[in-house]
């Protein structure tokens, strides 16, 4: 017994020992596990603070596969044009500007450009026939040779040679293309009265070929006793290139014969010579003068010179005729006469006109902007047919083409050089992947609508130079819709590089004060016989007509237009003409608000009579909100029959099918309604006020950002600090994140609605996808409403649409909310289209984009997530534009696509973020930081492209996607003469060569910085989320039927 007990005790001791060992081992294992977890947490923390090589390599791989930044081309009307030229043999026109831009255009889709970056200011252009070259004379007294070349399998407009006359000749006063000693040349006239020659092959100035002293013996002292002065005009005889006309400053005209080597005739006018031109078939010429007259001369060698002096709009004093041209017409057996100016000074001195005469027929084309130059384009110069086909007119603000082969001389609808600023652009909306059926309906509606104000030519565009290689239909159709100051809304073909206009409608026709040009009939007995041409009109009948917001549905069939006086109109695409009366629904946003007084402009008055709507968009609903403030945001959802809009005072939802107000809410706070207190009512400490001002100033102090276009002075002063920051990025160090305080409510109007949109998502736990409304304000607040929409139209009559406030997000820093995007956990869907959602509710989330940060929230709970990026805190910039894009991989697997969030800041920096992780992938200096108007006008597209206004009428287009970009794909037939690269890239050029053509892979202009971003910690922040619908509430969630 004792032995058994002893044995049991031994076994017990052994068991206790083993149990102790196991317990110690368990404790040691748990220690190891805890240590491992702490180590992993530490590694994660260090990895977030010091990004490793793997993360950098991953970013570089993603950046190289999906992104390639490039500026593709410009479209619109160039800024500050100065000269025009036509090549009738090859079928091209050229336009030069004072800013150094040279454009050569052929048939629609053929366009080449060379930008000298303000190094040149073009004064005159001369095409070298059948050579695909042109000579440019610039205001700095230099000549430049440009030519088409095939370089790197692309056709380019290259700068080839330069010849400067500074220090060699007197001031150049005029130029002309001609022939001298059997070689094509440029005749150069100077202020001293001498004439020189520039050989276009060697591009060198030949010694003086016509001295003024050689002309003096041929002049009779009785006819001309003064010094002739500077050479003001040239004209080469079209039949005999050896006969050259010279017009001098003081009225002397000399006919010089290079074959004889002397002057064979002199002609004296009583006024200064402005322009000269030969008749193309007869031996006669015309001269125009400063007194508004022109003279037809019949030079004879054996008899007295005959002259016919006429003042078209005399006898009272008239303005000078700056340019004159004449051309015969075999169709009419008459002669055309074209001239600029000549208007009576007292009555029409402010008119910008070109007069065209054909026999007894005369039309004075009246333009809104100054006429710079014109050119006559013949029908087919190559076959010998010299019938004038078109009159091209270059004005300061537009380009106009007049059809001379049609009886009424109508204008062509331009395929390029579109005057976007015909009325200033005030709103933009870009719709991608529009259905082809809808696009065809819009095009056909534009063709059915016969413009009553001016008739456009039905003949094809006369310029047919070059070859457009991309003749197949584009894979997708895009629309750019612009709103303008005069109330008009214009549709542009966004898939074609030239952006031709396909449709236009004016929303101002609904109101009184709108003047339709078709109703302004011209008086047939008026003299001079003016005819208004051109579309440029910078004046507006009423500033309240201005369009501030545009929105289209995803199908492009419904158009929502918001104006400057609180007017919101909904338009529907219709194929027939409709006539109806106008009815309006009033919505008072401040009806329940006391102590509110509106001191702004009044609302617009409706037209009393019925309005006829041509095929196209017709009016469906018209809403007028009070106060009549500008519409700041708008959204349309035609499947639900709802529109929503916001102003500076609140927002509202309107049911268009039942013409009922679903929701209206005023966001004005007590401080907005309380009158401002005076100094006697409260005491303000100057010390505290100054301290607060300093704190707010340092709070938003920006770090230096250098762009490629910044000045050398700025870069030299900021480069040490910038290099230090870049070195920190390369070393993996995270820059310090500055603390950002809440914004002051006195600096911004918190009630202003910046964003409003409909979405089909889930915001109620346990429910399926449902219609919702999202509203973002200037105070950093996001309201989420649950909509209950009857699923059938028959039920809409019995049941109204209801709108219930479900959730609310208040951002900590109270920064204005710019946009809200809905994605799933893979970052592969965009919530503006409810069909993109897969229905996995737990994986959905929203990304709220404010001016200072990007922040993710989960759905349906709206719980703040770890994914966020504080742009203002890290980069010191503000967000201006955002766009969710879906980009395809540029590798072999084109089906691999990924979504990114593009962010454009106030410094012009475009940054691409991963849509799910909100980590920066790529950053480029897209727009110069000093170009504020360009940043504010920027438009980002879902394809990864964008464009911004370079001037009031010209856009710069760029692409950040490696697999998609819209470019010019064109070619020309080059002559067989020598065009070696040595000639095109001569080392003696003072200008940096620039590729002028646009092809599939245009040069990159922006500076790219990839994967060198600071990794900010994923903090949840202190943003507050309010849930107005608890899980116990019995809520009927309306679903889309």
TrEMBL record:
GO BP term, example:
exocytosis
Q: Which InterPro entries match?
A: Lethal2_giant, LLGL2, WD40/YVTN_repeat-like_dom_sf, WD40_repeat_dom_sf, WD40_rpt
One GO MF term attached to the UniProt entry: syntaxin binding
Lethal giant larvae homologue domain span: 311-410
Q: Name one GO cellular component term.
A: cortical actin cytoskeleton
Cite the record's Polar residues compositional bias ranges: 708-723, 979-989, 998-1034
Q: Where is this region: Disordered?
A: 695-723, 979-1041
Keywords linked to the UniProt accession? Exocytosis, Repeat, WD repeat
Which stretches does UniProt call biased (Basic residues)? 695-705
Concerning its family, UniProt says: Belongs to the WD repeat L(2)GL family.
* Name of the protein this chain belongs to: Lethal giant larvae homologue 2 domain-containing protein
The organism's taxonomy opens as:
Eukaryota, Metazoa, Ecdysozoa, Nematoda, Enoplea
């Amino acid at each position: 017994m004792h032995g058994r007990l002893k044995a049991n005790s031994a076994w017990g001791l052994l068991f206790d020992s083993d149990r102790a060992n196991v317990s110690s081992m368990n404790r040691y294992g748990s220690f190891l596990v805890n240590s491992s977890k702490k180590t992993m947490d530490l590694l994660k923390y260090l990895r977030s603070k010091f990004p490793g090589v793997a993360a950098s390599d991953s970013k570089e791989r993603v950046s190289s596969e999906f992104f390639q930044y490039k500026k593709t081309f410009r479209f619109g009307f160039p800024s500050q044009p100065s000269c025009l030229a036509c090549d009738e043999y090859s079928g091209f026109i050229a336009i030069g500007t004072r800013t150094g831009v040279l454009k050569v255009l052929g048939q629609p889709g053929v366009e080449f450009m060379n930008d000298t970056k303000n190094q040149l200011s073009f004064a005159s252009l001369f095409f070298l026939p059948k050579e695909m070259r042109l000579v440019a004379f610039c205001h700095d007294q230099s000549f430049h040779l440009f030519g088409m070349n095939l370089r790197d399998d692309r056709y380019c407009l290259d700068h080839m040679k330069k010849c400067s006359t500074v220090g060699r000749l007197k001031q150049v006063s005029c130029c002309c293309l001609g022939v001298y000693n059997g070689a094509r040349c440029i005749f150069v006239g100077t202020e001293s009265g001498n004439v020189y020659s520039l050989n276009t092959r060697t591009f060198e100035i030949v010694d003086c070929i016509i001295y003024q002293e050689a002309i003096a013996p041929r002049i009779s002292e009785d006819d001309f006793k003064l010094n002739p002065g500077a050479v003001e005009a040239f004209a080469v005889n079209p039949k005999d290139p050896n006969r050259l006309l010279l017009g001098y400053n003081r009225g002397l005209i000399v006919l010089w014969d290079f074959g004889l080597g002397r002057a064979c005739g002199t002609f004296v006018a009583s006024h200064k010579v402005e322009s000269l031109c030969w008749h193309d078939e007869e031996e006669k010429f015309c001269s125009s003068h400063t007194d508004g007259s022109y003279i037809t001369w019949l030079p004879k060698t054996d008899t007295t010179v005959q002259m016919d002096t006429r003042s078209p709009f005399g006898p009272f004093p008239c303005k000078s005729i700056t340019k004159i041209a004449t051309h015969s017409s075999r169709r009419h057996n008459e002669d055309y006469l074209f001239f600029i100016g000549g208007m009576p000074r007292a009555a029409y001195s402010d008119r910008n006109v070109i007069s065209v005469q054909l026999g007894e027929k005369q039309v004075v084309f009246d333009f809104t902007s100054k006429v710079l130059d014109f050119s006559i384009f013949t029908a087919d110069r190559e076959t010998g047919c010299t019938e004038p086909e078109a009159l091209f007119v270059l004005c300061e603000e537009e380009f106009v083409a007049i059809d001379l082969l049609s009886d009424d001389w109508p204008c062509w609808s331009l395929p390029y050089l579109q005057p976007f600023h015909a009325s200033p652009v005030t709103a933009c909306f870009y719709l991608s992947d529009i259905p082809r059926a809808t696009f065809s309906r819009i095009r056909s509606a534009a063709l059915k609508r016969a413009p009553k104000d001016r008739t456009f030519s039905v003949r094809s565009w006369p310029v047919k130079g070059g070859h457009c290689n991309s003749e197949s239909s584009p894979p997708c159709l895009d629309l750019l819709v612009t709103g303008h100051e005069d109330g008009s809304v214009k549709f542009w073909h966004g898939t074609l590089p030239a952006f031709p206009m396909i449709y236009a409608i004016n929303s101002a026709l609904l109101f009184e004060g709108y003047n339709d040009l078709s109703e302004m009939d011209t008086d047939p007995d008026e003299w001079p016989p003016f005819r208004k041409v051109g579309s440029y009109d910078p004046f507006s009948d009423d500033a309240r007509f201005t369009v501030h917001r545009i929105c289209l549905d995803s199908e492009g069939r419904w158009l929502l237009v918001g104006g400057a006086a609180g007017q919101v109109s909904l338009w529907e695409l219709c194929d027939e003409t409709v006539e109806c009366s106008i009815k309006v629904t009033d919505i008072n946003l401040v009806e329940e608000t006391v102590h509110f007084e509106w001191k702004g402009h009044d609302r617009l008055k409706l037209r009393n009579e019925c309005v006829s709507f041509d095929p196209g968009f017709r009016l469906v609903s018209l809403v007028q909100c009070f106060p009549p403030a500008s519409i700041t945001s708008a959204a349309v959802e035609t499947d639900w029959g709802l529109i929503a809009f916001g102003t500076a005072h609140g927002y509202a939802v309107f049911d268009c099918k039942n013409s009922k107000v679903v929701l209206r809410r005023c966001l004005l706070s007590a401080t907005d309604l309380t009158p401002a207190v005076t100094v006697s009512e409260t005491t303000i400490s100057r010390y505290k006020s100054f301290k607060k001002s300093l704190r707010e100033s340092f709070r938003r102090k920006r770090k230096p950002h250098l762009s490629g276009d910044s000045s050398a002075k700025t870069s030299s002063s900021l480069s040490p600090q910038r290099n230090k920051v870049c070195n920190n990025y390369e070393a993996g160090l995270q820059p310090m994140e500055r603390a950002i305080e809440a914004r002051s409510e006195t600096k911004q109007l918190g009630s202003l609605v910046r964003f409003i949109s409909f979405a089909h998502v889930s915001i109620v736990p346990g429910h399926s996808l449902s219609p919702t409304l999202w509203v973002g304000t200037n105070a950093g607040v996001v309201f989420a409403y649950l909509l209950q929409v009857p699923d059938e139209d028959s039920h809409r009559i019995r049941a109204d649409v209801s709108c219930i406030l479900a959730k609310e997000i208040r951002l900590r820093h109270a920064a204005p909310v710019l946009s809200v995007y809905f994605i799933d956990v893979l970052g592969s869907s965009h919530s503006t289209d409810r069909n993109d959602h897969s229905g996995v509710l737990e994986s959905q989330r929203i990304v709220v984009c404010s001016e200072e940060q990007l922040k993710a929230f989960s759905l349906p709970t709206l719980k703040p997530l770890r994914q966020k990026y504080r742009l203002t805190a890290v980069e010191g910039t503000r967000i201006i534009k955002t766009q969710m894009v879906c980009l395809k991989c540029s590798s072999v697997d084109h089906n691999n696509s990924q979504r990114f969030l593009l962010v454009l800041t106030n410094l012009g920096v475009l940054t691409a973020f991963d849509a799910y992780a909100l980590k920066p992938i790529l950053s480029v200096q897209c727009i110069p930081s000093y170009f504020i108007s360009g940043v504010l006008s920027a438009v980002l597209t879902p394809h990864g492209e964008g464009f911004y206004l370079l001037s009031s009428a010209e856009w710069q287009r760029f692409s950040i996607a490696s697999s998609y970009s819209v470019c010019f794909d064109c070619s020309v037939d080059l002559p067989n003469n020598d065009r070696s690269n040595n000639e095109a890239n001569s080392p003696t050029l003072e200008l940096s060569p620039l590729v002028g053509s646009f092809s599939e892979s245009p040069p990159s202009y922006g500076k790219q910085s990839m994967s060198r971003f600071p990794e900010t910690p994923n903090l949840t922040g202190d943003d507050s989320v309010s849930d107005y619908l608890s899980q116990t509430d019995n809520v009927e969630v309306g679903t889309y039927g």
